[in-house]
Design a protein that fits this description.
The complex is a heterodimer of chains A (97) and B (366). Chain A has 97 residues and is α+β, with helices and mostly antiparallel strands. Chain A has 3 helices and 4 strands. Chain A has a two-stranded antiparallel sheet. The chains are: A alpha+beta (97), B alpha/beta (366).
Chain lengths: 97, 366
């Protein structure tokens, strides 16, 4: 299943890639492939912007504006400010993840 | 109190008051640990059901620390998990035929992926638990296995710099661990991909329906009964029921459309935007009910309001499901909200106006 087209903030800077394959290991949607000793993006529309790749890239070769793809969290941050997150479980709303 | 002091709470978190999945004590050169079983008891099965359908999940946790599954020694593998009890239970169940160490992080009772997103299943917590448990004294090797989805919160190279332990990201799903171990700690591409089967979606729907029905529906039902009962001579109870129940049925239908049918049939409903999927399913279900003629929704104003409001309600509820999926990103959700929120507000506002028109017509004022 894919979400909206051409929307992900994922960027791969191949010049910084050392070919360690960590991004391939951590991506849950097989967004990265491997060719000529470097990672490449297979299909950016598969990306859910979880941020595992950029967090684990030792060489700062990946940028993604990571966050939760959750409407409730985004609406909550629109009303109360702050970054959207899965924090609804800490507030009065005990029914969330 | 004296008894409690005998135990190191980082290696034996429960002291002497042990739950039923702790079967005894396991002692090695490094100290004493709780020995746990990989076999689920009846209480574990009941706990899973309660956690999946209600807010019981918020209290369903285990104490952080290190546990001995079977009879692990200094060469046994270490698996890291969250302290949501269901995460912990699924891991020990999948490992039940082996001996291993299980290191439980304090994620405030939240599952691995959600906690990693929040950062509680994170680099700092992992480093701190490794240190508190004295892991370097318990095992002689330097490998620890994390669930792949934990990578959202754990920066593997920083953990290695700080503790010397090398992180292996295991498969996404605990059920693939035996295959991962057979494959010398290498996950196949299939093991690395998160799936979202119809069954996966089905088990999530109770927690989509439940909050709406508990928090929103009573308010909606009360408003409907007041509107339909409202007559020039006061609120007439039998009118509220006899004329309002059709609208209540449509309201319930929109909840089912957005919180159950859309999630379940997700890949089969056309369009990628959840708001559009939910609107479409809501429209079809509203249409089916109104055309069937079994429910009393009469008058042009009321029918128009129904077509405007209920598909929009279904759309809004379906959009909430983005928080439960395994593939929606924040940029897409923001984009959807940008066009959908103004439409929801307009639909609700115009519906109210149409209802007022309906009442004025009913009273013979216009």
């Amino acid at each position: 299943m894919k979400y909206l087209k051409n929307i992900t903030s994922l960027r791969l800077y191949q010049d910084r890639c050392t070919g360690c394959r960590r991004c391939i290991e951590v991506c849950p949607h097989a967004v990265f492939g491997f060719k000529d000793k470097k990672a490449f993006i297979t299909d950016a529309d598969l990306c859910m912007e979880c941020g595992a790749c950029s967090l684990n890239c030792e060489y700062d070769a990946i940028y993604v504006d990571a966050g939760v793809g959750c409407a409730a969290a985004v609406i909550h941050s629109m009303i109360y400010g702050g970054e959207p997150n899965c924090d609804c479980s800490d507030s009065s709303d005990k029914n969330c993840c | 109190m004296k008894m409690l002091k005998m135990f190191n709470t980082d290696t034996m978190p429960y002291g002497t008051l042990t739950p039923n999945w702790i079967t005894g004590m396991h002692t090695t050169d490094a100290g004493s640990f709780h020995r746990i079983t990989g076999i689920w008891s009846f209480a574990d099965y009941i706990g899973q059901i309660r956690a999946r359908v209600s807010s019981y999940r918020m209290r369903y946790n285990v104490k952080p620390g290190i546990y001995a599954l079977g009879a692990p020694d200094e060469s046994s593998l270490v698996f890291v998990t969250a302290n949501y009890k269901l995460s912990f239970d699924i891991l020990r169940r999948e490992l039940k035929n082996m001996s291993a160490w299980i290191l439980v992080l304090d994620t405030a009772g939240i599952n691995v992926w959600c906690a990693a997103g929040k950062g509680t299943f994170g680099t700092a917590e992992l480093i701190s638990r490794i240190t508190l448990a004295g892991l370097e004294k318990i095992i002689t090797h330097k490998r620890i296995i994390l669930p792949q989805l934990g990578a959202v919160g754990v920066r593997a190279f920083e953990v290695r710099k700080a503790t010397g332990f090398r992180i292996f990201f295991g498969p996404v799903s605990a059920r693939d661990i035996p295959g991962y171990l057979e494959n010398n700690l290498k996950a196949t591409t299939e093991m690395r991909r998160i799936r979202f089967s119809m069954f996966d979606r089905l088990v999530l729907t109770p927690m989509e329906i439940n909050p709406v029905m508990v928090k929103r529906f009573p308010v909606f039902a009360l408003a409907v009964l007041i509107v339909f009962g409202l007559q020039p001579e006061g609120i007439i109870f039998h009118k509220a029921i006899s004329e309002g129940w059709g609208t209540l049925v449509l309201g319930f239908t929109s909840v089912i459309a957005g919180a159950f049918v859309t999630p379940l049939l997700l890949p089969f409903v056309p369009f990628r935007a959840f708001s559009v999927k939910g609107w479409l399913v809501g429209l079809i279900m509203t249409l089916a009910f109104l055309l069937s003629g079994v429910i009393p929704v009469n008058g042009n104003f009321l029918v128009s309001a129904s077509f405007l409001f209920f598909p929009a309600a279904s759309s809004y509820i379906a959009l909430q499901f983005t928080g439960s999926t395994t593939f929606t990103g924040i940029s897409g959700v923001k984009k959807e909200l940008k066009f959908a929120l103004p439409l929801y507000i307009s639909a609700a506002g115009i519906s109210v106006l149409l209802i007022i028109m309906h009442k004025l017509t009913e009273w013979g004022i216009i």
